Amino acid sequence: GTYKVTFRLKSKGDSSSAFICVDVHTGGRVLNSTTLDRETIPEPNDWFLCDLVFSLPEFATDVEFRGFNDGRPTDICLDYIDLRQLSLDENLLLTKLIHEYYTLLLGRTPGTQELDHWMDRLRSGGSKADLVKALLSSKEQKGKWEDKIFAASLHLHLLGESLDHEQIETLTESGGLWEELLQGWMNGTEWDTALGGLDNRRFVEKLYRNLLEREPDEEGL
């Protein structure tokens, strides 16, 4: 079955990481471990609640917490709270959690391999913070935010109006090319109001000043 050990962690110093081994007894000795990066460890003397989720064979009986491995860093305090078996519903909650973060941060559902990877990570000691950090630092998510920032900046500098969140989402999720996006703006009344009265030279000069924050050189003109 799937089990979860809940404990508290407190750093007494500037530890770069905490490699935590939990000794769970099932009629034999089972070691389950997790590594917490320094970013997930709170400031010294602040308690941090941790969950270590892991799987044991279905025939495992009399599962009980026996202690933490003595090899942990001396500047880490650990305080055991609880050990319990997760129900089927709680396993489904892990799946739902992964789907929600993928949808929120990447705008799509996870693939089968991605779902299996993160289910294993969360069951073997990974945290929700690990999932969020991985998605936020992914090339896919970074590209989405760069597109959103570019769309908002372009609209503001060209047409003099800020886009709200819904408008930005509509522009960047449509899947169209930037050329199509610009063409759509050029056909709108906002474009005529802001830029329609400019000749080619003044239009190019405005682009340089607003987007590149400099005057155009003769070659650029």
From TrEMBL:
Domain DUF4214, residue spans? 96-144, 185-221
- UniProt protein name: DUF4214 domain-containing protein
InterPro entries attached here?
Answer: DUF4214, PBS_linker_sf
What is the organism field in this record? Answer: marine sediment metagenome
Q: Per UniProt, what is one Pfam family of this protein?
A: DUF4214
